[in-house]
Write a structure and sequence with these properties.
Low-confidence stretches: none
Shape: globular
Strand content: 5-15%
Helix content: 55-70%
Distance between the termini: 29 Å
Number of strands: 6
């Protein structure tokens, strides 16, 4: 079955809250095949253990795929977001943006380039717009937070030659035209420039 079908099967089988001992047995069994069982808000899902894949199959993979798995392995150690909240510091988020931009530029024909582009877009979208529980616009005034504005300006200075800096610069210009207030133009910008 597909990834989503497999996750639905796992959820159905685990929805009666098995004991910690049973869960640990399941996790150990899956781990021996390079799969981890994770959960968020009571929903279980399977994901590949990229470190396992790298360790067991890395020497047979292209350099692009080894790098892809190395990036994934590093990112799996520090979850990016949960429950609509960004869990990593801003500098870690921007480092991930630049890591994926660099990967995409170096390996445009990578077999899983769409997944790499989706990772990039997820991080860039979170940086530019925040998330439900990590808002960058005030819920009272709809105005961009000062700290986000500083982060955007700093990102541009630190990464002047990058495509990402061009996107952030254009975003700041858009926000400047709205006096740094959230408008529908923000959503349109993100759809056109980030999630295209």
């Amino acid at each position: 079955g597909s990834y989503l079908e497999n996750n639905e099967v796992v959820n159905t089988q685990l929805q009666n809250s098995p004991s910690p001992e049973v869960l640990n047995k399941i996790k150990a069994s899956l781990a021996s095949y390079g799969i981890s069982l994770s959960s968020i808000e009571g929903t279980y899902y399977l994901e590949p253990q990229t470190e396992y894949l790298l360790r067991n199959f890395g020497s047979d993979l292209s350099s692009a795929y080894r790098e892809y798995l190395t990036i994934g392995s590093k990112e799996q150690k520090s979850r990016f977001a949960e429950d609509g909240a960004i869990l990593i510091p801003s500098d870690s988020l921007t480092a991930r943006i630049m890591t994926w931009e660099s990967f995409i530029v170096r390996y445009p024909d990578f077999i899983s380039i769409k997944i790499a582009q989706d990772q990039y877009a997820q991080y860039m979208g979170a940086f530019l717009a925040g998330m439900d529980n990590s808002r960058i616009f005030s819920s009272e005034t709809n105005r961009l937070s000062d700290s986000s504005k500083v982060s955007f300006e700093s990102f541009i200075v630190k990464n002047p030659e990058s495509k990402s800096a061009e996107v952030v610069k254009a975003y700041l210009e858009l926000l400047k035209s709205t006096n740094f207030n959230y408008t529908e133009k923000v959503d349109s910008f993100l759809l056109e420039k980030v999630y295209h």
